Amino acid sequence: MVNASPLLAAVSADFPCGDDLEYDAEFLQLERDAQGRPER
Q1: 21 near 27, Cβ under 8 Å?
Q2: What is the pLDDT along the chain (40 residues), one digit of tens a residue?
Q3: What angle do CA 35, 26, 12 make, to 5 degrees?
Q4: In 3D, which of 30, 12, 14 has the Cα closest to residue 22?
Q5: Angle at 37 between CA 32 and CA 39, to 5 degrees
Q6: Degrees (nearest 5) of the Cα angle 8, 13, 15?
Q7: What letters, b where the CB count within 10 A reaches 16 and e where it falls short, cover 15-29?
Q8: pTM (whole model) above 0.70
Q9: Cβ partners under 8 Å of residue 19, min gap 6
Q10: Can you give the chain as a three-state secondary structure string?
Q11: Main-chain phi, psi angles of 26, to 5 degrees
């Protein structure tokens, strides 16, 4: 059985869900690369 406790814990006190990657350069590139491709 998988211990889910570490996966459910906050990433940090300031950002419990982790960093906001909405405007991260690598994330934006990934979105551009995925445009025009059908969903899998």
Answers
A1: yes
A2: 889 999 898 888 888 888 899 999 999 999 999 897 777 7
A3: 120
A4: 30
A5: 110
A6: 80
A7: eeeeeeeeeeeeeee
A8: no
A9: 11
A10: CCCCHHHHCCCCCCCCCCCCCCCCHHHHHHHHHHCCCCCC
A11: -65, -40
In the block, residue with structure tokens 């300031």: 14
Say which residue the tokens 């059908």 belong to: 38
Q: Please count the residues of the chain.
A: 40
**Which residue matches tokens 């940090």?**
12
Looking at this protein, which amino acid is placed at residue 37? R
